[in-house]
Amino acid sequence: GAVVSQHPSRVICKSGTSVKIECRSLDFQATTMFWYRQFPKQSLMLMATSNEGSKATYEQGVEKDKFLINHASLTLSTLTVTSAHPEDSSFYICSARGTVGSENTIYFGEGSWLTVV
Amino acid sequence: AQSVTQLGSHVSVSEGALVLLRCNYSSSVPPYLFWYVQYPNQGLQLLLKYTSAATLVKGINGFEAEFKKSETSFHLTKPSAHMSDAAEYFCAVSRMDSSYKLIFGSGTRLLVRP
Prior knowledge:
The complex is a heterodimer of chains A (117) and B (114).
Chain A: E1 4-7, E2 10-13, E3 19-25, E4 30-38, E5 44-51, E6 57-58, E7 67-73, E8 76-81, E9 90-100, E10 103-108, E11 112-116
Parallel strand pairs in A: 2-11
Antiparallel strand pairs in A: 1-3, 3-8, 4-5, 4-9, 5-6, 7-8, 9-10, 9-11
Chain B: E1 2-5, E2 10-14, E3 19-21, E4 24-27, E5 31-38, E6 44-50, E7 56-58, E8 64-68, E9 73-78, E10 87-95, E11 103-104, E12 108-113
């Protein structure tokens, strides 16, 4: 079946450094990818929507210079957290929209835990 | 604008009992509605979705949900709870267009007692 893979699943970085999270669609071409952030025991907050080959559309209140999103191909989107601080520690989840067979739907990745120390 | 309200942050049922997780939506346009399940430290798995076809939607693992426009509801049910159903459940809404931009509810944690 359709799979969306995120890497790394867990990452620890030092405050002030940057970290990149990858989101790949393995069985289909993802025309649109979404990045969410989830704090412990809370819901998912949409950060941005990215379409292949164009700039990401960020939700209100999300700093686009801090959370850099690149969607360079139909199977890969990356989220880079720049100059990370402890308050950026969170669970980041991507999703990809695509068509598998006749089904056009959204598939979620497994998520990536970011801890900034 | 669209929003989702999930009533009850925690629901506790006995194994074998009926599961009912409530979801009410607000949307100025016809919505798509979704239920997702999340197990600890994992991503989201789609249980079922409503996309304007049948109002009673059957999903995986014995779950189903009914779209009721008059009540703006999309409650999730399962006749008999299993221990393996214990997880966090999220209701989500999106516009009935090609964007699939999901807005999530706050989630409901389902606890299943032996």
